[in-house]
Amino acid sequence: VFAALGYPPAVAGVLTGLCTVATPADTLRGLPYAQASQLRTAHLPQGAPTSPALANLVARKLDIRLSGLAQANWLTYTRYADDLAFSGIEVADVGTLLWTVEQIAGDEGFAIHPRKTKVMRPHRRQHLTGLVINDQPSYPRDDYDRLRALLHNAASTSAQEQNRDGVENFRAHIYGRIAHIGETSTTRRRTLLRLAERVDWDG
After folding, report:
1. Is 137 in a helix, a strand, or coil?
2. Do the bridges between strand 83-88 and strand 75-80 make them parallel or antiparallel, or are there none, so unpaired?
3. What does the pLDDT look like over 179-201, one tens digit per residue?
4. Which long-range contacts (CB under 8 A, 24 or more apart) does 2-8 make?
5. Strand, coil or helix: 94
6. Is the Cα dihedral 163, 169, 175, 176 positive or negative?
7. Residues 145, 168: Cα–Cα separation, whole Å
8. 112: helix, strand or coil
9. Residues 129, 83: Cα–Cα separation, whole Å
C-alpha cells in the first residue's frame, strides 16, 4: 500500500513497521501451532486505528468496481472490513450477480468465502455484521433479552454471582455491552441503564 502511494522503499518499510506488530512468544503459549506461527510474524493489530484505514486503501479498487456493479443493478453496495453487502430491490438473476462479484474480487486479489455467502430475502430475518437490518439496524432481540435478564438477576442476587466467566472488570464489561446494544435503540439503552443502576457492583 505504501509503495503504491509513492513512498520510497525505505520509508514504506518504516511506515509498515509502525502499523504492524509481532506478538511476543511468551504471550503465544497454549495457542495452536498454526495460529501462534501467524501471530509471531508481523501482522496488523486488531483494534488499531491504522488497521481499518489500511484495509480501506487495500480494498479501494475493489470498492470502486463493486459500487459500479451495484449501480448497474439498481443496488446499494456497502463494505464493513471484509463483509460485503448488496441491498435493494430483488435481483432477477442472483446467480449472475454472485458470479460477477467473485470474478471482480479474484481480479483484485481477494477470495469470496462460499460458506459465508448468503442471500437474504425481505420476508426472512436479514442479519449483517451482528445486526438485524430488515427495517432498521438493531441488535437481535435475544441479545437484549439475555442482558436484561442478567442485570435483573444481578440486582436480585449480586453482580459477582452473575459474573460466571470471571471477567476482570465486570461493571465496565456490562456497561460496554449496554452501549453496544444502545447504539441502535435509545429505548433499550434507557431500560438497561435503569436496571444497571439497581446493581451493587461491589457486593
Report:
1. coil
2. antiparallel
3. 988 888 889 899 999 999 999 88
4. 5/57
5. helix
6. negative
7. 23
8. coil
9. 7
Whether pLDDT at 8 is above 70: yes
In the beta sheet, which residues pair with residue 128? 131
Q: What is the dihedral of CA 75, 184, 129, 94, to 10 degrees?
A: -20
Pairwise CA distance, residues 39 & 110, whole Å:
21
CB 184 within 8 A of CB 138: yes
Grid cell listed for 178: 449496554
Rounded Cα gap, residues 129 and 59, in angstroms: 18
Cβ(100)–Cβ(106) under 8 Å?
no
Is residue 16 scored above 80 in pLDDT?
yes
How far is 157 from 150, CA to CA, in rounded Å? Answer: 10
**pLDDT score of 196:** 92
Q: What is the mean pLDDT of residues 58-64?
A: 95
- Is pLDDT above 90 for 89? no
pLDDT of 150 higher than 90: yes
* 12 contacts 3 by C-beta, under 8 angstroms: yes
Name the DSSP letter for residue 74.
T
